[in-house]
Design goal:
The structure is a single chain. The chain is mainly alpha-helical and 159 residues long. The protein has one domain: Up-down Bundle (Methane Monooxygenase Hydroxylase, Chain G, domain 1). The chain is built from four helices and no strands.
């Protein structure tokens, strides 16, 4: 969940960097980037929570094979979704630099950046809490299952 911390930090930098002036083109690009970032954060949140829900459900069933596949799906989804969010942040940084150079920006952009930052923070918290709950359930499952085949008593005592 390091990406979410990166998101919050990046968005804080964006909000501080967007000047309050008025031109449409660079500001429009920043607005479009923020909107795309918000969409990708929401998609990541929803997808990862769904994956964690599957993991939690399979943990309750004790189905280790399915659980392993669900964990792999979560990791794969997280990797691809984080890549999309990182690409959005990189594009946003570029457009913010252009907007700064053109002294473009509006209070609306600052408000949008703040709302995206708040969304990222909230979504990050929800995903982290769900992931921690799933981790705890997996640890409980590991602790309750035998580590190997049941021992058999092959020695006989005779008198």
């Amino acid at each position: 969940m390091k990406i979410t911390l990166l998101l919050v930090t990046g968005l804080a930098a964006v909000a501080a960097a967007v000047p309050v002036a008025a031109t449409a083109d660079p500001a429009g690009a920043v607005k479009a980037d923020l909107t795309q970032l918000q969409t990708d954060i929401t998609k990541a949140h929803d997808t990862l929570l769904a994956d964690i829900g599957k993991i939690s459900a399979d943990t309750g069933k004790g189905d280790r094979a399915t659980l392993k596949a669900d964990i792999q799906a979560f990791r794969s989804d997280r990797e691809s979704l984080v890549g999309a969010v990182k690409a959005d942040i990189d594009q946003l940084k570029t457009d913010v630099a252009a907007a700064r150079g053109a002294k473009a920006g509006t209070p609306e952009l600052k408000a949008l950046a703040q709302s995206v930052r708040d969304l990222a923070k909230q979504d990050r918290g929800e995903v982290q809490a769900a992931a921690q709950s799933a981790r705890d359930a997996i640890k409980a499952l590991k602790g309750s299952a035998p580590k190997g085949p049941a021992p058999t008593n092959t020695t006989t005592t005779s008198k």
